[in-house]
Amino acid sequence: MTTPARSTDIIFTRHGARRGIGWLTEAFALFRRAKAPWVALIALYYLLMFLLNVIPLVGQIALPIAKPIFAVGLLAAAWTQERGGRPLPSLLFRGFRSNLGALLPLGLVLAMGGALAVLGTQLFDGGLLLSFFSGEVKDAEAAVASGRLPLSLAVLALLLLPTTLALWFAPALVVFQDTGPGTALAASLRAALANWRPLAVFGIAVLGAGVMVPLMLAQAIVAALPSQATLFFVQVALVFYGFAFAATLHIADYLCYRDVFHAGETLAPLPSGSDRAT
């Protein structure tokens, strides 16, 4: 069941819980139609994120600021494929040519929200998580075994939730609907809260298909066939699966946005011979 709703001048649709599974399965179907281009696109994206992160002093600040900009490129790739084009790696830089002035504040919100969430965990764990991230925790295994570190990570996820929901649809709203950053953040937060059921199902499905199932299968294979060759094969398989699943997630981000803010709209095909988002 879907219900139209309104956030300021932005109309969105409220979906039922089962739609969360649909976003993931439909995204995987799109990925299967263009596996090599998507793997190349995702590999380029993570390479750029890695190179940005290792820049001394600047990298830790620049990385979250750049993420919404590159997110637009991934959205553009999914938009292009859905209309019959190809998700080319060149589309990754689309955000630098599409309302960049409104995307930069979204990156600042991500950076500030993440920093405040990490600092906020000190109220619960006395600085354990902050020490872990800075490499000051000498016995990480003991911290995990005691349950303190997993609890701190759960608290961090909870503190990050408002920032995550506010940014969920914001880059797409800025680029596809030409909204300002403040309007995009507010509309994203309201639409995400209105769709908390399908988003919760989506999150559970992602945790299961992206983390729990592959790790359980990997452990079972290594236990059944213990050898260095098996371990190497499993590690390589997990890397390839990780790229495939990351691509599926980014496609799902686009499908989720389109389903919530453009439900029922007819898709206009790209002009003949075009592979680019407009």
Structural summary, described in words:
By secondary structure, the chain is mostly helical. The protein has one domain (10-261). 73% of the residues lie in helices and 4% in strands. It is built from 12 helices and 2 strands. It has helices at 19-33, 35-53, 59-82, 100-120, 122-125, 128-134, 140-146, 148-168, 170-176, 181-194, 196-224, 228-261, and strands spanning 3-7, 10-14. The chain has a two-stranded antiparallel ribbon with strand order 1-2. The longest helix is centred in the last third of the chain and has 34 residues, at 228-261.
Task: Write a brief structural summary.
Helices cover 73% and strands 4% of the residues.
What does the secondary structure layout of this molecule look like, with pairings?
Elements: E1 3-7, E2 10-14, H1 19-33, H2 35-53, H3 59-82, H4 100-120, H5 122-125, H6 128-134, H7 140-146, H8 148-168, H9 170-176, H10 181-194, H11 196-224, H12 228-261
Antiparallel strand pairs: 1-2
Helix pairs in contact: 1-11, 1-12, 2-3, 2-12, 3-4, 3-12, 4-8, 8-10, 9-10, 11-12
The value of Rg in angstroms is 20 Å
Number of H/I helices: 12
What sort of overall outline do the alpha carbons produce when their principal axes are compared? globular
The sequence of SSEs as H and E is EEHHHHHHHHHHHH
Total discrete domains: 1
* Poorly predicted ranges: none
